[in-house]
Amino acid sequence: MPEGHSVHRIARQFRLHFVGKRVSASSPQGRFAAGAAELDGHVVTDARAVGKQMFLEFDHERWLRVHLGMYGAWDFAGDITADATVLAANGRMGQTNQLGTPGQSGKPNQSGKPGQSGEPRSDGAPSLNAPVDAAGEDSLHSIGAPRVARLRMAEQEKLGPAADTFPPEPIGAVRVRLLTHDTVADLRGPTACEVLSPEEVQAVIGRLGPDPLVDPGKRGEDRVVAVVRRKPTPIGLLLMDQSVVSGIGNVYRAELLFRARLNPHTPGRDVPEETVRMLWRDWSKLLKLGVQQGQMMTMDGLGAKQKAAALAHRDDRHWVYHRAGLPCRVCGTPIAVEMAAGRKLYWCPKDQA
DNA sequence: CATCGATGTTGAG
DNA sequence: TCAACCTCGATGG
Fold it and tell me: What is the pLDDT of residue A49?
């Protein structure tokens, strides 16, 4: 589900709460047992996002590559103070915030290894479970009892049901669990999750187009211009091609094209160079904004009232995405939708003629 | 409660 | 071009 901004947010979360710490790695679900064993007991040394992919570096020349794909998500728990503003805006996920229900969700899925290996000492060590010092966190929990905060990060970020033990039981089928002395990250439903050598990581990144946050400035821009201006492929497809430019998904594609008032069917080679440069700069701007805000914001420059509506209601957030048949916000023409390479492409036939 | 569809990618045919 | 991957919120009965 996530487009580039979410992955950068997740990488930041790892930098804040995992880099520099030793982790015990496991695969409660079992499908990543071998990979987890390779990482177990090592220190996380870096976390980077490139487009929709995230790379976690460990202290023994091994990297974990993760692509969340369509339904992937990370569940963080423990000492994870995140942007409270975003959390408040998005509310809590799933169940109520009630006591008990550690297993919850009725899914006794995480069979296999119960207690799971690397509990740090514990036994008596209450560790940092109880957020005694986390004054900011208390304000997020209506109930007074000390709880272990939970945060789900995918395309959206939501507070989960607080747990009362650390580490909490995994929710659902967890491919990999990374546990430090005070934080834990559970990965569920990824398209890709594998351990790579530094060379292999370099090879993967080499196949990706520029990401504005990784290749800022003119270098990335020039690369995109060179590729786009050489291809007969419609610009609507090129923007989704991760080897052309990284991190753009179906929402950002539709919105970027509308903001440029560009017909999605225009062959790349026919898009004026200045327009390609504008697309890149606009993508850079929207990506930064998304990372900062924790959610997509493609209708910047609105009045305060409209802005509030856009933040509150999902359907009010975009110019054209998910608005098939609804009147264009600019000209009133019904927004068109068509299938392009298996994905829905939304655009205004008049403004983007 | 069953069904549908999705902010993505890969690989088979 | 399309199914598979594999999860969950939205929708309808």
Answer: 97
CATH of region A4-203, choose from 3.40.50.170, 3.20.190.10, 3.30.470.20, 3.40.50.970: 3.20.190.10
Residue whose token pair is 């052309």: A244
A30 touches strand C (CB under 7 A): no
Q: What positions of strand B are covered by protein, i.e. any atom < 7 Å from a CB?
A: 6-10
Name the token pair of A13.
């979360």
Return the CATH number of the domain spanning residue range A211-347. Answer: 1.10.8.50
Query: Where do you find CATH 1.10.8.50 in chain A?
Result: 211-347
What is the end-to-end Cα distance of chain A in Å, rounded? Answer: 29
Summarised one tens digit per residue, pLDDT across range A149-187 is: 899 999 888 888 788 899 998 888 999 999 999 999 999
Query: Could you tell me which residues come within 8 angstroms of residue A87 by beta carbon, excluding any fewer than 6 positions away?
Result: A140, A151, A157, A158, A159
Q: Give A109 CA → B1 C1' in Å.
A: 20
Residue the block writes with tokens 């997020």: A140
Residues across chain A: 353
Which of the 141-180 residues on chain A come under 7 Å of nucleic strand C at their beta carbon?
A: 171-173
**What phi, psi does A48 have (nearest 5°)?**
-135, 145
Q: Where in chain A is the domain with CATH 3.20.190.10?
A: 4-203
pLDDT at position A109: 32
Task: Tell me the C-alpha distance between A84 and A90, whole Å.
Answer: 10
* pTM for the predicted model, two decimal places: 0.84
Nearest to A21 by CA among A74, A75, A78, A59: A59
Q: Which two tokens stand for residue A18?
A: 């995992």
Closest by CA position to A280, among listed A233, A342, A215: A215
Contact flag, residue A334 CB and nucleic strand C, below 7 A = no
Query: Could you report the per-residue pLDDT of A207-232, keeping only the tens digit for each?
Result: 999 999 999 989 999 999 999 999 99
Q: Tell me A250's DSSP state.
A: H
Would you say the C-beta of A131 is within 7 Å of strand B? no
Task: Identify the residue whose tokens are 């899925």.
Answer: A109
